Amino acid sequence: MPRFLYDLAERTVLTYVETFLGLLLASGATDLVDLSAAKAAAVAALPAALAVVKAAAGLLLGRAGTAAWLSADKDPAAGPRSL
User: Fold this and answer.
1) Residues 78, 80: Cα–Cα separation, whole Å
2) How many degrees, rounded to 5, is the angle at CA 20 between CA 14 and CA 26?
3) How far apart are CA 77 and CA 19, in angstroms?
4) Rounded distance, CA 70 to CA 77, Å?
5) Which residues are CB-contacts of 12 (< 8 A; sequence separation ≥ 6)?
6) Which long-range CB contacts under 8 A does 72-80 form with residues at least 24 apart?
7) pTM attached to this predicted model
8) How far is CA 72 from CA 56, 58, 62, 68, 77, in A?
9) Half-sphere exposure of 15 toward its Cβ, with a 13 Å CA cutoff?
10) Using the 8-state DSSP alphabet, how is residue 71 labeled?
11) pLDDT truncated to tens, each residue of the chain (83 aa)?
């Protein structure tokens, strides 16, 4: 289970950071989004929460012990496969 937790943490944190920075850049560079940093931080939590839900579903759908949805035979991180 620790492997899954590391995978989950990585996906969640990076989704949050990417969303937060994307919102800040969009707010500063365009008129499409007008958010303060605090509001951007709050909004960025939504995709991060969805990443947690997606990772939890990965426990059932994908390779055992990871948050990936790919099965072991299709997952490039699973290591070498025999043909």
Assistant:
1) 7
2) 130
3) 25
4) 10
5) 48, 51, 52, 55
6) none
7) 0.76
8) 17, 12, 7, 9, 8
9) 18
10) -
11) 688 899 999 999 999 999 999 998 888 887 777 788 899 899 999 999 999 999 989 888 888 788 888 777 777 766 665 55
Gyration radius of the chain's alpha carbons = 16
Distance of alpha carbon 83 from alpha carbon 65, whole angstroms? 24
Residue count of the chain, please give it. 83
Residue with tokens 């605090």: 38
Q: Which amino acid would we find at residue 62?
A: G
> Which one, of 70, 12, 29, lies nearest residue 79 by Cα?
70
Structure tokens at 75: 């997952």
